[in-house]
Specification:
- By secondary structure, the protein is an alpha+beta fold.
- It has a domain at 44-105: Trypsin Inhibitor V, subunit A (Trypsin Inhibitor V, Chain A).
- The chain has two helices and three strands; from the N terminus they run ααβββ.
Length: 106
Amino acid sequence: MRAALAGLGAIGLSGCVVAIGDSGPDRAEAVPVPPPPAPMVCNAAAAQGHIGHSATQGMGTAILKDAGARLLRWGPPGGAWTKDYREDRVNVSYDGNMKITEITCG
């Protein structure tokens, strides 16, 4: 029984071998790996000029660009925030009139 299971495992793994290029079955060429993306760190000070504006998708896009952040998190009135901190995220709070009241990082 064990031999049968071991044989099935070997058969399943045999499909995992991949040849790259025309180097032959016993050689593989290195594939260049792109560098990681540049870190995006939020700078809320650069986006403070948007406070008082309407909370819209277009305004969110502008805030992301100005703050240099990768992610945007909207905070509705009375909404709860998680405590996790992300240096690449900008937080935008707005009031019941859909006006932006605060812009922070995290």
